[in-house]
Design a protein that fits this description.
This protein has six helices and nine strands, in the order ββαβαβαββαβααββ. The protein is α/β, with parallel strands linked by helices and 275 residues long. The longest helix is centred in the middle third of the chain and has 17 residues, at 90-106. The radius of gyration is 18 Å and the shape is globular. It starts with 15 loop residues before the first strand and ends in a 7-residue tail after the last strand.
């Protein structure tokens, strides 16, 4: 399918969509951009009822609440196309455009990117931007060849449920190891529940993400689950509640598995599935 050509003179829609739970600060001293998931291959625009984008709204609201008194602008990144689309990496270009719009709006402030799945992959790629200081990657899509050398000097935190059937937690931990070797500060956390869509124990996902984002902005300490092991050794701790036993072993999935699209009720191939 060939991409749809834009009409001559047509304007590109803004890539930046501020969260409206509260009035954005007039003079932000930092910013957070939230990136939702998508598909491996899809050239069409996201649909009006975009479930991956809806899933990230409570994360954005939680971050806005956690930073409400710290002059932090929280915004979503709008995608022009629904998929990653191979070498095009369309959501990366959208994120770069959002970062440029952000600089025009509030100037050169520190930025944390918070992304889920394909959005996490886009956030990690876009972290090459000099304004990005950190990334929070939720169930990220980190293929084995995904570059990490550009993350030197950044902080990368990743949360992943190892029962995730869409993206691989093992790939995430391997990516963090590569990022650390490149000079990034990395932390990872094995989530005990949630799957790829992060629906089970969703409030815990929201809270940990908001607290970690606030910590990356320097306005709060890291949550205890991450603070207890600040140095990455390739084996992420498991997030547990007080008194909750840690399950032994690590659940993994073969590389050739069929993925289930959390945005639908039918199976789909990995090349076309929701990311």
């Amino acid at each position: 399918m060939a991409p749809t050509r834009k009409a001559r003179g047509a304007r590109t829609a803004p890539a930046l969509a501020p969260v409206h739970d509260r009035r954005p600060p007039r003079r932000a001293r930092a910013a957070v951009l939230v990136l939702h998931g998508g598909r491996a291959d899809a050239l069409e625009a996201p649909p009006p009822l975009n479930l991956p984008a809806l899933r990230m709204r409570p994360f954005a609201r939680a971050i806005a609440r956690a930073t409400a008194h710290d002059d932090v602008l929280v915004a979503h990144v709008r995608y022009e196309r629904r998929g990653w689309n191979g070498d095009h990496a369309h959501p990366v270009a959208d994120t770069q455009r959002a970062l440029a719009e952000l600089r025009d709006l509030v100037g050169p402030v520190p930025v944390v990117l918070v992304g889920h799945s394909m959005g996490a992959r886009a956030a990690l790629r876009a972290a090459a931007d000099p304004g990005v200081t950190g990334v929070v990657a939720l169930a990220p899509w980190c293929p084995p060849a995904e570059p990490a050398a550009h993350l030197r000097g950044r902080t990368v935190c990743a949360f992943h449920d190892e029962a995730d059937r869409i993206t691989s937690a093992e790939d995430t931990w391997a990516y963090l190891t590569r990022a650390q070797s490149a000079g990034a500060r990395v932390r990872g956390l094995r989530m005990p529940h949630g799957g790829h869509a992060m629906l089970r124990q969703a409030r815990r996902w929201h809270r940990l993400t908001a607290e970690t984002t606030a910590a990356l902005l320097g306005v709060a300490p890291f949550p205890s689950a991450l603070a207890e092991r600040p140095v990455w050794n390739g084996s992420p701790p498991r997030c547990t509640r007080p008194g909750e036993a840690t399950a032994p072993g690590v659940r993994s999935h073969p590389a050739g598995r069929t993925s289930l699209d959390p945005c639908a009720s039918v199976p789909s191939l990995p090349s076309a599935g929701c990311r």
